[in-house]
Amino acid sequence: MRVLVVVATQSEIGPLISDFGFRISDLDKPECYSLTTHNSQLTILITGVGMVATAFSLGKHLATHTYDLAINLGIAGSFDRNIVLGEVVEVIDDSLSELGAEDDDTFLTIDELGFGEGHFKSTARLSDFKATSLKQVSAITVNTVHGNEISIKKLASHIHPQLESMEGAAFFYACKQAGVPCLQIRAVSNYVEKRNRDAWQIGPAIKNLNRFAADLLNQMDRR
Questions:
Q1: Among candidate residues 8, 4, 10, 13, the one with its CA nearest the CA of residue 61
Q2: Which residues, 6 or more positions from 131, have their beta carbon under 8 angstroms from its beta carbon?
Q3: Closest CA to 25 of 8, 43, 46
Q4: Which of 12, 14, 37, 181 could form an S-S bond across to 124 if both were Cys, CB 3.0 to 4.6 Å?
């Protein structure tokens, strides 16, 4: 099975790279790592932060390489206080929440304008691989992460997202265009609130994310 793991930064996936023994790939040095296991060919693509970097890097890569599955791994902020900091979740739908136009106090999505698509769903699920189930959530993808109480309340009132990241929907979009089955797994590092770095749990989120990713790849390899 050919599996592509897509991540914004090396720091989010460092433990998986070292524990699995990934090596710099000849495909796209130095942003790409590869490993051949018993039943799988695994590749890690580090795209850079944000939807533009993700869409460009992933689109470029998928133009010349084929995969049976793409997995987006990363950390995220949560609007939903029922999600515990450090918890790993499966994002099953994601939106480009800023893509559209203002009509006075009303926001028109790119879909409503008739100029494109801004909402995407995963085309693979953990259940497809008989993997450990996770809480399934919805997310938005943003250029500017929220840290202002007024903008947070305004967003929550008309979209009701559970998570936000800077890459998820762009990942779904690129995979859809390339016809690659995809799923998104994120660990919650912080709550979406007035910026408060002292409350962030990045270390535990990355640890839990990498532990889950390692278990998932091992399960896939045993199939």
A1: 4
A2: 215, 216, 219, 220
A3: 43
A4: 181
Identify the residue whose tokens are 């189930």: 133
Count Cα neighbours of 14 within 13 Å in the Cβ-side half-sphere. Answer: 8
**From CA 116, how far away is CA 139, in angstroms rounded?**
19
How far, in whole angstroms, is CA 105 from its chain's centroid? Answer: 30
Residue with tokens 């070292």: 18
- Identify the residue whose tokens are 């259940």: 127
For the stretch 177-187, pLDDT in tens is 999 999 999 99
Strands 2-7 and 100-103: unpaired
SS3 of residue 199 by DSSP: helix
Name the residue among 115, 178, 168 with its Cα closest to residue 140: 168
State how far Cα 92 lies from the chain centre: 10
